[in-house]
Predict the 3D structure of the following.
Amino acid sequence: MLEVSSAGTAGGNSYTLSSTGGTLYANAKINTYTLNVNFTANTGVSSVKVCKTSGNCSGTNLMGTVSSSGSSVSSLVYNTAYYLYPSFSTNYEFSAWAKTSGSGTLSATNTSNPTFTIGAGNGTVTVTGKSSCQTSVSGTMQAFNPCS
């Protein structure tokens, strides 16, 4: 007689056991999590792409694009590093990243394209932009456009 436990967990992964004709099968499920991305208010961040590989953020390498603050990208695999690529409105540029809550590790806060490694739970990061406009001028000028 073959006794089978129908479901459980091992090493944080779930499994299901079934028996057919005396053969035992295990079906494992990879844990996936969500990365929430927030934009600091009024700092020019327009979107953030989350990618599998550096420098290639299209096709199957693109996991998702967050285009409004508080949105997220799901189905990210535990213990995997994903690349973050922010875009900014005209006259804005990168300022800083911060890991604001949840599980996972942000590789750097002062580079525009860090990685976020998914932990055993959902994570949240915040990206901040800053004005790239010139704010002061020296000398005599006929007209001054701070963003030219």
Remarks:
- The mean pLDDT is 84.
- The two ends are 81 Å apart (CA to CA).
